[in-house]
Amino acid sequence: MRVLGVDPGLTRCGVGVIESGRAREIACLGVGVVRTPSTDELADRLMAVAEGVEGWMDAHRPEVVAVERVFSQQNVRTVMGTAQVSGIVALAAARRDLPVAFHTPSAVKAAISGSGRADKRQVTTMITKILGLESPPKPADAADALALAVCHLWRAPMSDRIAEAEAKAAQLARNHRARLADAARERGSTGGQQR
Amino acid sequence: MRVLGVDPGLTRCGVGVIESGRAREIACLGVGVVRTPSTDELADRLMAVAEGVEGWMDAHRPEVVAVERVFSQQNVRTVMGTAQVSGIVALAAARRDLPVAFHTPSAVKAAISGSGRADKRQVTTMITKILGLESPPKPADAADALALAVCHLWRAPMSDRIAEAEAKAAQLARNHRARLADAARERGSTGGQQR
Lengths: 195, 195
Hints:
2 copies of one chain form a homodimer.
Chain A: E1 2-7, E2 12-20, E3 26-35, H1 42-60, E4 64-68, H2 76-95, E5 100-103, H3 105-113, H4 120-130, H5 140-194
Helix pairs in contact in A: 1-2, 3-5, 4-5
């Protein structure tokens, strides 16, 4: 599976493409940052980020796009721009019929480092190791984009398995209810005979 | 001038088109709401809102788009969706070469009711009066979109006038500095003679 990870941002939007191979091997197909100057008008910046990220989608043809889920804990001005970019990225993916998955920063950290509270350095170290890169990806936004993509790859089979288990459980519950209903009906008819 | 006002939102995105006529007359060309079901996937909802708002842009061909500036004071989940939609609307406008202006809720309220703390009822009452509508626009998001457009229309000439006044003041300051420099030079030469 080929995954495009996007760490949304107005000033620096991290992008990274990975592909899962055999066993647990994952290859990094590309990583970078789409930048827009803070002196530009907001609408122009949004358009520039859209064009940049769409360029990555069209060049690498991912099967799924993983985007960081934005929380409003950070600086108000920053978080608004980040949310706007995340919306634009999700829109671009949806228009290409690509599924979009959102992962929280702590889920990403936990997936690749074992701790939801890992710092930026730890994330960069782990992503460099996991993807077998010669040097750590820079800036942090680029590393985060790759981490998002890897997180998606590793979480996806798990959520698929959960969905499968839930479907099985639901089927069992339906069977059980049907058997109970049958039993009740039988009891009803025999009960009639007993009277 | 024809203005499209957009009150961004995922569940209900208000849209309203107005046009300024002679004197202070403003006509309402259309008002409505783009809705997306909360049960749909986020990316699909964003795409549906984008298509809806773009439909309004293409049908009414506004010269400018006025969008509510989002703050992260509200509910975290809601504000993220709102910010994502505002980004998508700004992108759609920029791709049509339309200028985008952001106005804060309090600026909108102040522009049409005289108070930045006006409540929803007041805004609806005033927008109905200003546009000479037969009945108040519903829901509140639709009324807010029209209020945004009117706010833009009334603020735009003001900010143009402020810019003009500032340019004039800068020119006067330059003239004044030049005259001071001339005077100083003259004083310098006559001073030499006096010695």
